[in-house]
Specification:
The protein has one domain. About 70% of the residues lie in helices and about 0% in strands. The protein has four helices and no strands. Helix 2 packs antiparallel against helix 3 and helix 3 packs antiparallel against helix 4. The radius of gyration is 21 Å and the shape is elongated. The termini are far apart.
């Protein structure tokens, strides 16, 4: 039995082998952006764990779990889309196309704003 060889079955080169190599400064800047997205995802997931483990339940039933799920889900979505974002920018630079717009940023902003509103409501209801 012959081992599977990836290059023999591929009909066209991998996207990282196509086009021109971009200026390394732009590739490194793209990588730093990717790492910033990953740090953000880790912070959101750590916040979800801290919320569930360290903060007692809220007066509104299900809000504690719901907020934890929003934070964890947002962290998961960011971590998955961080690679897609990085790869899309690398492809565009290699093909000398304009950089694609990120669809993730409006979602991140909106969901974090929603989480902030929920936290404000919880703090105000517990303070009264």
């Amino acid at each position: 039995m012959t081992p599977f060889r990836r290059n023999e079955t591929r009909k066209r080169p991998h996207w990282s082998e196509e086009g021109l190599d971009p200026d390394y400064r732009f590739s490194l800047a793209n990588e730093r952006t990717f790492l910033a997205w990953i740090r953000t995802a880790l912070a959101l997931m750590a916040g979800a764990v801290a919320l569930k483990q360290l903060i007692p339940g809220f007066a509104i039933r299900g809000l504690h779990t719901g907020l934890g799920l929003v934070l964890a889900g947002l962290g998961m979505a960011i971590s998955v889309n961080a690679y897609r974002h990085w790869a899309g920018y690398e492809r565009a630079m290699r093909e000398e196309r304009p950089l694609p717009r990120s669809q993730l940023m409006p979602w991140v902003s909106g969901l974090l704003a929603l989480a902030a509103v929920i936290v404000v409501v919880v703090v105000l209801t517990n303070a009264l």
